């Protein structure tokens, strides 16, 4: 390495050190486990992706904020391109973008304020497979689980290959998407369908704030597909 590139490397490392220190970015250890009887392709943005057979886990350290989900019925070639029936992220194994709906999403923000992490499960992009999201340390034992038979009972008009769409995705109207007056936006027959089967998750933008859980920063997390 010549002097110029080693100086560059030094200043880049220094810059990263300063950014990480000043903004208090914190990494948390996540275990993402597949308990489905079928293979899924786990996805995280940021984070990438990994094929998981039944009972396999993906251990990954994640920072800042992002989302985790499962892809189903994927075909990827050796170069990591392909497609999935649900949860596809622009046709690549290592996701660097959000999922196409419908997909069950685990969302987190680490150290969002006063050393607290926030996390939730969201059906605002629909549902593909059952999921559980929980803290793993003794400091935090809260669990969010969505294991209702949403695909089996999905209203016909919301059915989609690999899952059940959120009405906002499908109809894009103000009532379902809460575009106009967010404060007065309420539950609908569709949001109640999801909420009845999965009471602890977000089903529309102004859903019960109690669906977000908080854990002390430093907690580890576990996401389980088909809990
Ligand atoms: C969380 O962020 C604050 C700054 O907002 C920082 O002082 C603290 O060290 C961070 N905590 C961890 C565990 O990274
Ligand atoms: C996550 O970070 C911890 C602490 O730095 C490290 O020991 C561990 O090996 C990392 N895990 C992965 C999967 O990278
Ligand atoms: C993947 O390939 C299998 C076997 O050829 C096929 O049945 C399935 O429909 C394909 N999936 C997608 C999403 O194209
Ligand atoms: C769910 O959690 C993520 C990450 O903390 C957050 O950005 C999102 O707003 C939350 N969803 C709702 C509906 O509050």
From TrEMBL:
Signal peptide limits: 1-27
Disulphide linkage map: 36-226, 74-84, 89-95, 146-198, 154-164, 168-177, 178-185
Keywords: Disulfide bond, Signal
UniProt-listed InterPro entries: Osmotin/thaumatin-like_sf (IPR037176), Thaumatin (IPR001938)
SMART domains, A to Z: THN (SM00205)
Keyword Repeat assigned: no
Keyword DNA repair set for record: no
PANTHER family: OS03G0233200 PROTEIN (PTHR31048)
Family: Belongs to the thaumatin family.
Protein name: Thaumatin-like protein
Organism, as annotated: Citrus unshiu
């Amino acid at each position: 390495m010549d002097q110029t590139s080693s100086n560059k490397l030094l200043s880049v490392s220094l810059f990263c050190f300063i950014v990480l220190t000043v903004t208090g970015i914190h990494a948390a250890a996540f275990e993402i486990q597949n308990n489905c009887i079928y293979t899924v392709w786990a996805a995280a943005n940021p984070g990438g992706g990994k094929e998981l057979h039944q009972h396999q886990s993906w251990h990954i350290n994640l920072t800042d904020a992002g989302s985790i989900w499962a892809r189903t019925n994927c075909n990827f070639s050796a170069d990591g391109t392909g497609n999935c029936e649900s949860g596809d992220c622009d046709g690549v194994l290592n996701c660097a973008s959000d999922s196409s709906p419908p997909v069950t999403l685990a969302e987190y923000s680490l150290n969002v304020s006063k050393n607290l992490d926030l996390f939730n499960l969201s059906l605002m992009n629909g549902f593909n497979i059952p999921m559980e999201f929980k803290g793993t340390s003794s400091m935090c034992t809260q669990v969010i689980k969505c294991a209702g038979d949403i695909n089996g009972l999905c209203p016909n008009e919301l059915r989609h290959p690999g899952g059940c769409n959120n009405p906002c995705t499908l109809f894009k109207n103000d009532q379902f998407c809460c575009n106009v007056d967010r404060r007065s936006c309420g539950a609908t027959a569709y949001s109640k369908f999801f909420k009845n089967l999965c009471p602890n998750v977000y089903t529309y933008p102004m859903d019960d704030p109690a669906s977000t859980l908080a854990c002390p920063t430093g907690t580890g997390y576990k996401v389980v597909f088909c809990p």
